[in-house]
Amino acid sequence: MAWELLPVNYTDAVWSGLKRYNTITNEDGTVSFQDVTAYSNKEKSFFGARDANRMNEALNTLMSMVENGSDLYEAFQNYFTAQKGLFEDEANTKQDGFTAYITALEAEGDNVINSLKTDYRTEMDTFESQQQALFTTWFEFVKSQLGEDVAGNLQNQITALDTKTDGFDPRATTFSADGKTITEIDSAGNKKIETVFTSDTVITQKLFKKESNGSYSLVNTKTITFSADGLNITEEVV
To answer: Which of 17, 166, 216, 227 has its CA 20 to 30 A from that of 123?
Structure first.
C-alpha cells in the first residue's frame, strides 16, 4: 500500500489580547466555559490522535526491524522500488489513455477532411455535368435553328477561340534583318502586329487590320516603357 504523507502544514493559532469565554450553566448545576476568542490559523493548529498514531506506527515498524536485525537500507530500497512501480503503472495508464485519445482525435480529423474532399469533388462533378448538359442543350438548339453548316462553323469558331485563349493562335512571324522588328500575321491574314524595339527601355506595338482592297490600316499603337531599374512597366495605347 502506498505511504500516505504526514501533514507538514500545521500552524499556530493566533489571537489578540486575552482569550474570551462565556460561562454556561448546566442543568446539573455545573458550569462550562465556551471559548469565544477570535483566532487566526485555527483550522490547521490541531495535532490529533490520527497523526500521532501514524507517526508512532511508523516509528514502531522501524524499531522492530532494527531489533530483528533487518537491513534498513535494503528494506527502504524495496519500498521505494515498489513505490516507483506504482507510480510508473499509474503514469503508463494515463499515457495510454492520452495516446488513445490523440489517435481517436487524429482519426476523427482525417475523416472530416476526407469527407470535405469527397463532398467538394462530388459538388464539382455535379456542377461540371450540369454545365455540360446546359451547353449541349443550347448548342443543339442553335444547331436546329441555324442548320448544319452554320452550326458547324460556330463550333469551329468556339474551338478557335479556345485555342486563342490558350495562347496558341497560329501566326506567320518574321524578323527584320537587324532583329529590331517582329511582324506577325494571323493565319487568316486579317490582322497584323508589328513589334519594334525602339530602344533599350521602349517597345512599340502596332495593330493593323486588312481592308477589302488587301492593304492594312493602323488600328492601335501601344507603347511599352520600362523603368531604368526594370521594376516598373507602363503601357500607353492610342
So the answer is: 166
Q: Report residue 44 as a C-alpha cell.
A: 490547521
Residues of the chain with pLDDT under 50: 1, 165-166
Cell readout for 24 is 454556561
Query: Angle between the 49-67 and 72-146 helix axes, to the nearest 10 degrees?
Result: 120
Nearest one of 196, 172, 176, 175 to 184, comparing CA atoms: 172
Give the span between the Cα atoms of 182 and 171, in whole angstroms: 12
Predicted TM-score (pTM) of this structure: 0.32
In whole angstroms, what is the distance from residue 97 CA to residue 123 CA? 39
pLDDT for res 136 = 80
Q: Which of 202, 186, 204 lies closest to 194, judged by CA?
A: 204
Amino acid at 184: E
Cα four-point dihedral sign 231, 238, 161, 214:
negative
Please report, for residues 27, 158, 160, the alpha-carbon distance to residue 148 in angstroms, rounded to integers and kept in the order given. 124, 15, 18
Count CB-CB contacts under 10 A for residue 183. 17
